[in-house]
Structures
1.
Amino acid sequence: MEDLKANIERDHLPQHLAIIMDGNGRWAKERGEDRLFGHFHGVQSVRDIVEASAELGIQYLTLYAFSTENWDRPQAEVSGLMELLVNTIRKEVEQLKKNGIRLHVIGDLTMLPPTAQQELTEALELTAENDHMHLIMALSYSGRWDITQAFHQLGRKIQAGELSPESVDAEVIAAHLSTRDFPDPELMIRTSGEHRISNFLLYQLAYAEFYFTETLWPDFRRQHLYKALLDYQQRERRFGKTSEQVSSEPI
Ligand code: FPP
């Protein structure tokens, strides 16, 4: 497996990797267990992927941990998952701090229980000085929520006369999204064989490469990540241009 890692070109990594961690429920069901058992094992994969990404030199890693739609799951799963997320962050924050990883959270945090909000604020503060890697947890997040909240901010600024409607372009919109401090992801991985974007970073994934794998999230470990990165490195990103134009551009 080390061979896979050795073949990765370090100067051609995505700067920002985004992952839809899917398949925890099915992984648990295959074992005759409760869905929460799958989420619990999914945390091991999170740890491994965060560590491997930091080791490789990926600068931004966004993980889709909980969508705004996930609030509609059975109450027991929602509260169990919330508890797991907050406990994991609490437990891992020292390690993140030590490894130079800065934690960020994007999403509608007003939906979270106040104690969870408090825990998160503390964790964010504890890692605020780090800059080796940025770990972005999408929590109570959806792409449509993000775009909607950006519209609200822009509307208020236009109403206050701080901004003219004509000056709103792609860059201005990006600057009002919850991801304003991060570059757009170049690669998005989704596990578990589903080929959907599921309301993830709708605006930000405009030019991202997508990588889908059948592997369920609790089984997804660093060697799967290396495989995805090698696949990404074979691809040519054209941003709407022709292949000839791209190959004649200076690197
Ligand atoms: C999707 O699987 C996964 C989730 C909704 C939760 C992801 C959360 C974790 C992996 C725990 C993460 C912990 C941290 C700290 C980020 P699913 O339940 O939709 O699976 P299914 O499609 O098989 O039902």
2.
Amino acid sequence: MTRKLQPGKLIAATHNKGKVVELKDLFEPLGFQVLSGLELDLDEPEETEFTFEGNALIKARTAAQATGAPALSDDSGLEVTALGGMPGVHTAIWAGEPRDFYKAMEKVERELIAIGAKDRSARFVSCLAVAWPDGHEVTFRGEVQGNLTWPPRGEMGFGYDPVFVPFGFDVTFAELEPAQKHAMSHRAVAFEKLKAALL
Ligand code: ITT
């Protein structure tokens, strides 16, 4: 039988403020007390895998071991079709240190111009992982397709939201109200799968 996730303490194994907000919005209404890696000052493990699933598992596993509580992580990124799926699992580090997402979005745009790309399609991918302290673990993947726009538009959301226009819309993720983004994002799709399996 699939193991269920019991409402109670859940560690959000992330140091990304935008993700913390989104994960709390998704899980707190279901009776979870979500504590983030930021609040708990958890160490950030190195993301050494080449897949979203692999890196999500590293983060969830490390947090579950460190806290003794079930941990949830998200590994996500932007895959640009004309760039062969880049930046993909490297999406966060494209922003450099300290992170500058305007520069990262500009870098994507520069590369599209450099190759004369007509295809501006891209997708956001999110892989949610849950790990329990006893070593049990599971992952769920969600994707949302869209087109990249330039210049960036909108003040909401985080990361690459200002350049991503989901298919069927003419506004960017950063121009959508959080509730609208949460209803359709890559993270929301992964979350629906998690909910069906674990809750
Ligand atoms: P943690 O590892 O601590 O969770 P991180 O920001 O390093 O935080 P990732 O390694 O998963 O997370 O990098 C994913 C990057 O993809 C993230 O920094 C964002 O820039 C981008 N990204 C993911 N989901 C996004 C979303 O919903 N909107 C905009 N950008 C997003």
